[in-house]
Structure formats: C-alpha cells, structure tokens
Amino acid sequence: MQIYINGFTIQDPVYSYEGLAIGIYNTAHLLNHSCKPNCIQIFNNRQIYIKTLRPIKAGEQLTVSYFDVCRSKQERKKYALQQYMFKCQCERCENDDEEFAIKCQNCKKSEIKENELKCIQCGKEITNEDMIKIKERIKQISEMMNDKSIEYNKKVDLIMEARKIGEMRDMQFCQIISDFIVFSIGKEQYRNAKIFLKKYIKNFVYWYKQELPLLFQKYNELSKLLFFQNELLEAEAVSQKALNLCNKFYSEVEFQEKTDLIQRYQDIKHEIMMSKNN
Predict the structure, then answer these.
(1) Dihedral angle of Cα 180, 184, 187, 190, to the nearest 10 degrees
(2) The domain containing residue 251 runs over which residues?
(3) Is residue 183 part of a domain?
(4) pLDDT tens, position by position, 230-260
(5) CATH number, domain at 58?
(6) Is residue 28 in a domain?
(7) 166-184: string of b/e by CB count within 10 Å (b at 16+)?
(8) % of the chain at pLDDT higher than 90
(9) How far apart are the first and last CA of the chain?
C-alpha cells in the first residue's frame, strides 16, 4: 500500500493514464496532488520528467495529478479517498462551477446547477426530484453509449437527447461525447466523430484553461479525421497545434504517434502545395 500511495504509475506516452508499472522516484514522490496541477509527469520508459504547465510563482507549491483529471468532481474525490486516503480540497474540487448542471428548458440560454435548482438567467426553478430524474437519465445514456449491442442510429438519438437536456461542458457529458466519438470512428462515421471531437476539445479547454498532454491526443485524432476527409487547411492548423504540444511535453520521448504526426503534417503541407500549383 505504501508503495502504491507514494509511487508513480509509469504511463504510456500517448494514452497517458494507461498504467504500465509503478515506480518510486526519490524527488518526484514529494509532489502533492491537485486536480488542476501546475506540473505534469511525462515518462520515457522508466525515466520520469516533471514539466511545468504554466509559469510558477515564487514560493508556489509544485503539484501534479495522481489520477485522471478528466473525471467528474464526485469521481475524483471518491478515487482520492479510496486509493490515496486523502480528501481532495484542491482549488478545482472546491470550485462550485463544476457542479452538475442542465440546460434551462425555459429560456434555452442558461443553465440550472444541481446545488441551486434555479436558472441563473431567467429564474426558472425545478424540484430536487426533477434534477434526480434528469441525472438518472444522463446516467442511463452514458451506460447505453457503452453498450456495443445498440445500433449507431440509436446512439445518435441518445447524444442528441443529451444535448437537449444537458449542459454539454459538464464533465459527465464530456464522457458521453468521448464514448460517442470512439463508437463513430469504429462505425466509420467520421463526420460525426469530427463534429463531436471539436466539441470535446472546446469543453476541455473550457475546464482546464491550460495545456495538458491529453489535448495533444485529441488534436492528433482530429488531425487524422480532417486529413482523411481532405479538409487540408484545417488539418494543417490542427496538426500544428498537436505538434506544438508534442514538442512541449514529449521532446525527449520517441513513440509511433509522434512519428506518424510529423509525417502526416508533411503530407498535408505537400497536398496543399500541390493543390495550389494545380
């Protein structure tokens, strides 16, 4: 247990929360956790690099995340307590902005938060029972999105239903979007995958307001989709963003996704140049 709590999960450089082993690092293990960290741990095989995510003020504590920061606040708090035996009270976990929220069905312009039960714009109120029913429905949609036996068209209906009732920047809806993207790519529904991947990235930027390795992964996926659909100019811009993040976080690490991205970026620029010449 002591090794697990004080150790770092050695992670795959692309799928950054896929654990390969646990390592003990004499200095890095002193870093405390935050769900909005100012540092990130990057692995090159068994070697660890601690990189800053933003400028650090004098005297500011260095923090990393011990687990997937894309979980909802409730999930993060539960995981921190169960796996690391502490109650997370970081800035992000104490921020009410991350409370579960739904779209106001009255004004269609604002949201109703779980802890307020009242639209912040038009004043429309709902009961706690209504909120519970909506949360249960969202949970059902999330579970159904992971059910491989459900037809693709039905999943399209489900995500459209989620868009109508839910605040799409909510973390739970982000997970629904993520699952739908994976399913869409598997069914070769690349247009829908592209549309919702853009929404996911927008949500990600909204929540974290800082660059994280996961954002590289999402830009890289979007780059593939845009290139596949021959949307070259946008593919070039997105690939450049992915490369910038790759160079920021993975300058010391070599892996196949990085090699493929560099080659794709060169191919995109070549295709653009050829189209201009024609």
Answers:
(1) 180
(2) 211-277
(3) yes
(4) 999 999 999 999 999 999 888 888 888 899 9
(5) 2.170.270.10
(6) yes
(7) bbbbbbbbbbbbbbbbebb
(8) 38
(9) 64
